[in-house]
Structure formats: C-alpha cells, structure tokens
Amino acid sequence: MSIKRTSHQNHRFITAKTIAFWDINACQIPDGLKGRDIGPSVSQTLANMNYLGNVSLRLYGDTHVDKIGDYTDQTYRFCGMPHTTILEQILVDIYGVSVFNCGRHLNILLIVGDLSKDEAIINAFSVLPERKLVNVLLCQPSDVAAAVLSSEVQLPPWEKIVETAFAICEQKKKEIEDSRKRSEEIRASYRNGTAKISRVLGEF
Hints:
Blueprint: E1 17-23, H1 35-48, E2 55-61, H2 65-68, E3 76-80, H3 86-99, E4 106-111, H4 119-127, E5 134-139, H5 158-202
Parallel strand pairs: 1-2, 1-4, 2-3, 4-5
Helix pairs in contact: 1-5
C-alpha cells in the first residue's frame, strides 16, 4: 500500500513550518557528527526543494546520548525509548501536532527506516494527507523498500543528508579557521605598527 500525498508544488506549504520526526535507530547519527549537525543539512535540503519555513527536529530512539547532546529546545527535542515502540510514538505525536496546529498548514517530514513490514503503521500514515492542511515528506536510507512509500515528495536518501551534514560542518570549521587566521594577522599587523611607531618616537 502506498501513502497518498499532497503535491510539493502546492504554494501553501512553501512557507509552512516543517516538523521532522526522526527515528535515530533506523537513520543513525554517524561517527563524527552530533544530532544537531543534521539540522542544517535537513533545512538546506528542504530549501532546495522550495520548503522555506522554519524546521524543527524530534529525535526518537535509544542511541547513545553523547551523540544527542544534553540540551533540547523548540527546534531540537530527543525522546528516548525502546526501538520497538518508536514508530507508534511518532504516529501518536504526529497526530497530536496536526490536531493542535490551529488550522495552519504544516509539513511533516518522516525520517524513518523500512516500513514495509508494518501494515498498520502504513495505513495510519496514509490518512494524514487527507487532513488537507498536512503535507507529508519522506526520507529513508537508500537500502530500504522505498516503493512502500513511493511519492513525488521524496527527499534524497538518508546517506545524502549525512553527506551534506559533513560538508556543512567542514565549511563551518574552515570559516572558523579563516576567521582565526584573519584575527591573528590583524593582531600581528597592529603589533608591528605599534612597534614601528615606538621606534620612530624613540628617535626624537
């Protein structure tokens, strides 16, 4: 069974908020990244698809907390739980936010693994687009049965999200290093200039 979806060309969802429900056991945080490093990658991917609203992530799983971080806020929340109940809890939370969204349009992004073995979950997810105000997006690893949730509103595979996250982190590191070097050059220039002035004044 496939999930029917609203079209990503629908202008009402371009500036709508996106809430990502992320199964971190199925789509794991790789070594070298933290949970928060994925956020900018997801936002950039959505922007490339013309989803320009605010993005928040909700993380579900029993992964080691050191990769999650010990802080949460309105854009980043971690819900620790056994992997056997992750999809059920995601579904409950999705219906909760869709009901209490006060009539506003909302993009729901599912970052999940293989759903082909859980017919009940698929049936439940398939009802979401019928609410008209909800647009469902999907991101999965490339090695799962993607045909189960075939849709034109399909993000690049999870591996691409991770690749982009590494690239963004490397760019940030480069910018920080370049900024540090510029600061050192300015300080060195200032010290040299001060020394020259002192020598000149010493000649009088």
